[in-house]
Design brief:
The complex is a heterodimer of chains A (327) and B (147). With 327 residues, chain A is α/β, with parallel strands linked by helices. Chain A has two domains: 50-266, Rossmann fold; 281-324, no CATH class. Chain A is built from twelve helices and eight strands. Chain A has helices at residues 9-20, 24-35, 42-49, 68-81, 132-145, 160-166, 183-188, 208-222, 246-262, 264-293, 299-309, 315-324, and strands spanning 57-62, 86-92, 101-103, 118-124, 150-156, 171-176, 197-200, 235-237. Chain B has 147 residues and is of the alpha/beta class. Chain B has six helices and five strands. A five-stranded parallel β-sheet of chain B has the order 2-1-3-4-5, with helices on both faces. In chain B, helix 4 links the parallel strand 4 (95-99) and strand 5 (116-118). The longest helix of chain B has 15 residues, at 74-88. Chain B starts with 11 loop residues before the first strand and ends with a helix. Classes of the chains: A alpha/beta (327), B alpha/beta (147). Chains A and B meet through helix 2, strand 3 and strand 4 of A and helix 1, strand 2, helix 2 and helix 6 of B. Strand 3 (101-103) of chain A pairs parallel with strand 2 (40-48) of chain B, so a sheet runs across the interface.
Chain lengths: 327, 147
């Protein structure tokens, strides 16, 4: 955490203007400060939140090696063919031992490096302070304000953190492979709940039909056919590296977008869940900071901890007293 | 935790290759060694253009760029990249070279702006020392904060 002095109002106005006109370096540096949990960017983020044009956010998640980055590369091409400006936030796992990471998603998207209409930013799942979900949500505020037409967020769908990020997406695409296992795996993976569109990639490998059928069965089981307004999540087969099945996938994503427009209550419910998560995350980060990291520790907490160590108070009661704002 | 570290966050290092060089063993090894020391490596792989690499430098807000070469074209390609970085206003980001760099070319490479050269025999410690001093970021700080 960096204890930087507060930005003067003019500097905030300049920074907002830079982000709004899509200044890549200014925005990229802002994202770095977000990752480092630099508290001085908070006023800027608050202002940028109101600048957001509510850019559609598409979340893409799935197991490692499913072909997410390759699929994102193809999706970028499709969006660019529609003359839409695309931002990509690519989250990759990090070493739990060193905190370091090899962020390699760009390797699959190299052909877009020279396209000014594409902005790709890699984020390490562990390199950020104050939690990945917090950092990703803050980053989305910046990307939204930069004026892109669509934002893609790619995560490896293995942890709660990565799943939480998907709560900020308007549409979620789950990418699976034929090697993902049988229907039981699909059910217990815990990703059926968050997917709006499912793509079984590597459709050319043996077992792709069976995997798609198993996934379809699991998805259908959750779908309420009696609710005529409910979204019916499609299960498609694609072969990302051969650009096969992408037309149908784009059509499915477009249909989901139209569905949300046609059913504003469902979109609102989704946005409310995202907002709830974001606010709860910010409160959790603030509490963690206050009780664990701040150099200046408050006297009340110190007194309470003494009581806990001396067994005059239990940790459960202490936590409740802190949350109630009691003595 | 240091209350006022010089710069917060992990070292972000872009690693990639320019031109037609396909010998990725070295750069992939370095990527893993740096990751194990707590560096965030943004890995671009091979076959990059200078312009594409500059875009990545900008968007990823990296602290340092590492290039690997196993072909004799490195002076040319490094010059092209440094020119492109200057044109884009990101020539403040230091560039280091690794791979088969001949001693006779080191002076020229330094003169065009290369900050670090790590040929055969270089150790991970040497590279880490260079990264920490040139970026002003401390890796121990990162580890402490994450704990």
């Amino acid at each position: 955490m960096t204890a930087s002095p507060d930005l003067p109002a003019s500097a905030i106005a300049d920074a907002i203007a830079a982000v709004r006109r899509g200044d890549i370096r200014a925005s990229a540096r802002l994202i770095s400060r977000i990752e480092a949990m630099d508290q001085s960017v908070r006023p800027l983020l608050r202002a940028l939140y109101f600048e957001g044009a509510r850019t559609p956010v598409l979340g893409i998640t799935g197991p490692p090696g499913a072909g997410k980055s390759t699929l994102v590369d193809q999706l970028i091409c499709r969006y660019r063919a529609r003359a839409l400006k695309v931002a990509v936030l690519a989250v990759d796992p990090a070493s739990p031992f060193s905190g370091g990471a090899i962020l390699g998603d760009r390797v699959r998207m190299g052909r877009h490096n020279t396209d000014a209409g594409v902005f790709i930013r890699s984020m390490s799942a562990r390199g950020v302070l104050g939690g990945l979900a917090r950092a990703a949500a803050d980053c989305l505020v910046v990307l939204d304000a930069m004026g892109f037409d669509v934002i893609l967020v790619e995560t490896v769908g293995v942890g709660q953190n990565e799943i939480d990020i998907m709560r900020h997406a308007h549409s979620v695409l789950i990418v699976q492979t034929p090697a993902a296992g049988d229907a039981v795996q699909a059910v217990k993976a815990g990703i059926l709940e968050i997917g709006d569109v499912f793509a079984v990639n590597k459709a050319d490998t043996p077992g792709a039909d069976r995997a798609a059928a198993a996934l379809r069965e699991a998805v259908e089981f959750r779908y309420d056919a009696h609710d005529l307004t409910a979204w019916h999540p499609p299960v498609l087969q694609v072969q990302a590296n051969a650009d096969a099945g992408l037309d149908a996938l784009m059509a499915a994503l477009d249909r989901h977008r139209s569905h949300l427009t046609a059913h504003p209550a469902q979109l609102r419910g989704r946005l409310l869940r995202g907002a709830r998560l974001q606010v709860a995350e910010l409160v959790a980060v603030a509490l963690r900071r206050r009780y664990l990291l701040d150099d200046h520790r408050d006297a009340r907490l110190t007194r309470m901890l003494d009581e806990v160590v001396e067994r005059r108070c239990d940790p459960y009661g202490a936590a409740e007293r802190l949350l109630d704002g009691g003595p | 935790m240091t209350p006022h570290p010089p710069k917060a966050g992990p070292i972000r290092c872009l690693l990639g290759m320019l031109g037609t060089d396909v010998h990725t063993k070295g750069i992939r090894t370095l990527a893993q060694l740096l990751r194990d020391r707590g560096v965030e490596v943004i890995y671009l792989g091979e076959h990059n253009t200078a312009q594409g690499m500059v875009s990545a430098i900008l968007a990823e807000d990296v602290d340092v760029v590492g290039l690997s070469f196993s072909t004799a074209t490195y002076v040319h390609y490094t010059r092209v990249l440094l020119d492109a970085m200057r044109a884009a206003g990101v020539d403040d980001v230091p560039v280091m070279l690794g791979g088969l760099i001949h001693r006779d070319d080191e002076a020229e490479l330094k003169s065009i702006g290369v900050k670090g050269i790590f040929g055969p025999g270089s150790t991970t410690d040497q590279i880490m020392q260079f990264l920490e001093s040139i970026t002003g970021k401390s890796l121990s700080h990162v580890r402490d904060s994450l704990a």
